[in-house]
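=== Structure Prediction Worksheet ===
Name of assembly: unnamed complex
Input type: mixed (protein and possibly other molecules)
Chain count: two
Listed entries:
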Amino acid sequence: MTTRRPYDNVVVCAPVTVPYVRYSTDTAHWWIGRALHQLTKTAGIAPKDIDGLVLSSFTTGADSAVGMTQHLGLSPRWLDHVPMGGVSGVVGLRRAARAVQAGDAQFVAVVAGDTNHVDSFRKTLSSFSRFAQDAVYPYGSGGANASFALITKNYMNKYGVTREDFGKICVAQRDNALSIPFAMMKKKLTLDEYMKARPISDPLHLFDCVMPCAGAEAFLVCREDVAKSLNLPAVKLLSTIERHHAFADEAIQERGGWAVDVDDLWQMAGVKPDDVDLLQTYDDYPVIITMQFEDLGFCKKGEGKDFIRQHSFTTDGTFPHNTSGGQLSTGQAGAAGGHLGITEAMRQLTGQPIGKPVKDAKIAVVSGFGMINYDRGLSSGAAVLARAS
Amino acid sequence: MTEPLKRPRRKDPLKRTQQPLYPQSVRSRTAHGLTKAAAEGRFELQTCDDCSTVFYPPRDACPKCLSDCVPFKPVDNRGTLLAETTIRTSTDPYFRERTPWRVGLTKLDAGPVILSHIHGDVLEGQRVRLDLKLDKGGAPVMIALPEKDTPNMADDPHLREMTCDPKFRRVLITDGRTPVGQAMARAFSDAGCNIVFVGIADPWKPFPGQDELKKIERVEIVPLDVTDSESVTEQAEQNGGRIDIVVNTAEHIRAGGIMQRHGVTVAREEMDVRYFGLMRLAQAFGPAMRGRGADGVNSATAFVNLLSVHALMNWPQYGAYSAAEAASLSAAQCLRAELRPGGVRVMNVFFGPLDTEWFQTVPPPKVTPAALAKAVVQALQRGLEDVFVGDIAEDIRARLAANPKALERELAG
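=== Predicted Assembly ===
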């Protein structure tokens, strides 16, 4: 095994969220351009200063990150395209951090944005992957809901977690979202409403599912001294992990790839799960949240249900979790869904939350999960962030 | 327990006919290995030649050892349904009007985990058989069936979407003068067809078997001559809107090659019956069938072509006949593409020499008309697309797959 080298002197700053809308007649290019524009304003730099770019999007059509440089008038000396759905945020962050650390770029803009036209969801589903086309979409065309319904059902059967448990997480996230102006969901959710919601794909019901929307997220990765010279509040990157297609032998997915690399995550960060003040999981479905509690080491495998019963998960309660409301309440802006937790954690750690603050937040963990190709989500990643001293 | 189908009532002619839809049918080129197996009713998955790993979904390299020798092979279809879900919201119009729709993950004993449709008699946790079927759009799909057959299981509404079961449907047998046509009428009546229309050219001319034919339950003799455009059009105008299955039994079998024949008169007759005949039927009955692919329990479902297996490789002893059969086959492939948007299947049934007068001098094994009729009904019940009936047909199929050139030489005698 190799030892992972620390991200000396690398910080993350200038969190940007372009407020989400349910449907947009604009293109992904517009959303991405808007996010970068806002990023340069926030950071106080010019577009030409952006010498590194990581792009994630499902809806730029034929345009890759290269095409986007011309579209947006950028001339980076370091460019990456991370088409990894919900893990793009963490993966983009760790790619950018190494580029900055190695001196390949000074300002890496990590940006994700997707539009949502009235028909784009169906089109994305049917052509998501070759396996989806050959072996998933022709079976009822239930999309990710049906695939995660099967994972949820299997997990409930095996570990005894109940719909009420999942409901508690969703209700807490909705409470958190109520103080976030750009959240899609504006109304309080009760457990009773959660339980009685209309079924989508058993055992999943309406409030287990995210609402697809248009939106964009961005942040800047640079050296700590550079951020200081710009007077930018910044957070440190303590450690990251990334894993794809782990546990292929599980007939139905019960773990994400975090479980393979979690020891590295904590060892490299030099902190323990107990030290964490807030957790931003990738919350496309509550079962995946529960797996993250377990696989990231906050509780043991199979103890997710007890962990859920022990905590409130609200921003001002015990174990603050998805304090922006997460995608379940804020909406899923395509690939930007994987960046939502990062920008929210950055705001909490720098004392500039949009909604309610997590008291005295010093350490945050952000986790990503993505790409259900056939029967399971293939990609996982996580990062430990800390308030700069 | 599957609820047995109810005999459909007479349709209100003022009611709108539901338009046919079908699930997404685009597949990768490799996944058409499943299409090939499903078309003939085999259960096959990719199996690595190097490490024997069985895997799914279709890939271009073995996920165990990266070998590219990964052919489709017959595989044990038994497994356990690990988890199921009932889809209530679908983005696809076909499924949207058919929800709730159950799908689930089956762990096959042979290894892979397969997402499939689920028969109504199967519950989560149970042992199942996976079957490979063609769906309404002619694309290959998996369905989990009960471990053992259950009462009325063919009536399951989701399974019936993937088959062309004659039960309660109305069939047109295009030529009832032949022994094959009469055997077909009997078999379709036995299979539970609501009406068995049997076409007879020049009905005033008596023919052998006439009395027996008329005695078969639910048989209705209708005037039809496939070599006469007017007759075909008239019959379609009369009954075309309520014909769910067409079985083209019109035949023209004469021995001999092409060099020794005098002129082209006989060849023209052969083409008139087998090629132009099919074209007339397609033009007269095809459009209405394509429009009625989702018309309830007795929706239009199949167009059956009976073809000599020598449509696939000429048999010089019956050389001109083989050529007409090849023309008919090619037209049937075209018709298949044209009827697919309506969810109507074109089934090609390839038979070896028949046990009828026109193959009098050919030694056995031969296919009796009754065996051919039985095979056709069973293939419709299973929803197949390509069927080989009899030892000779199977033999030609295997030899054609192995070495077409060897077959060509050997058939030349």
